[in-house]
Amino acid sequence: MLNRDMRRREQAVEGGQRKNSIRLRLGFSGDDFGYAVTLGFPPPEIPPPNPPSAFTLDPVFKRECIWAGPFLRPASVLIDRDGPLVRRRSTHGWEMLAQHMSLYESLFSYLGKDRYSPEVFEMRETVRSWRFYDHFRTDPDAPTRKPQLGTRTPVMHHDGRDLAAALQTIREIGDSEALDAAINDAFPGSVLKIDAQAGGLFTLTLQQEGLLRPLTAAELSDGTLRYLLLVAALMTPRPPPLMVLNEPETSLHPDLIPALGRLIIDASHRTQMWVISHSPRLAAALSNASDCNAIVLARELSETFVVGQTPLQQPPWHWPD
After folding, report:
1. Rounded CA Rg of the chain
2. Which of 179, 193, 269 is nearest to 232 (CA)?
3. Which one, of 64, 75, 74, lies nearest residue 112 by Cα?
4. Beta-strand (E) ranges in the chain?
5. pLDDT digits (tens, 9 = 90+) for 16-44
6. Which residue numbers in the chain have pLDDT < 70?
């Protein structure tokens, strides 16, 4: 942490002796349940194993907690995992569930299959239902650019390999008119078509105004193909509770940013959207939504902070001891 003198440039920024163990802590909470996990390096084994393990740098689970309600309190903890020990709160107090659980496995792989742990099952299914899109492949060898075997695809793969099938699924069981409107919004006068070839292979083509023939996915620019991938992700017939887009403006022409903003705003009416962006133009487009909550991050002396947030305005959060 940077002290006050370092922030004022009155003292050189320098590190001190590490006092705590290296830890990675992640957590979230909702109205019903919350979850927190602490990961770290494995402890040294005494005596060391023979032969020694090759996975000495693999992170292990140090602590996991599931609690009821939005805030962690000792009285609200339902499941508590401390290293190899896992215990559950019951009507008669704490019940020990495991004493030698593998440190490289989460409690979700051990609990949640019996009727006594509904909160574990609920939390696991909640996390599994989230959808993340942060690495669409648009390189010349990307599977998206080649004909792929088409099956009904209400949820596109995270790398976009089944784009043609996902778009055709939107046409058949989703909002076909909204799909055409999204294409026309970005590329006026263009027509998207999915050709089902012999053998079940799907090929994507885009007929753009002024061209004598439609372009296949292999011929589209990275930005055009990426926009079509975002259309398929955001117009899914099966919207998730939470969808995360990481820098969706990458490779897009600046003129496509307003259309992308309108597409994201429309998707936010069906699912909770979380967008990470470095584009001021996209941020301005999203700010047109009445329920857009913009959080601006800045970095000073390698420390990232929320602009305008004072210590008293930080959200209430407590990590497990």
Report:
1. 25
2. 179
3. 64
4. 23-29, 33-40, 60-68, 77-82, 85-90, 93-98, 131-133, 148-149, 191-196, 201-207, 215-216, 242-246, 272-276, 297-300, 303-306
5. 677 777 889 999 998 899 999 999 988 87
6. 1-10, 13-16
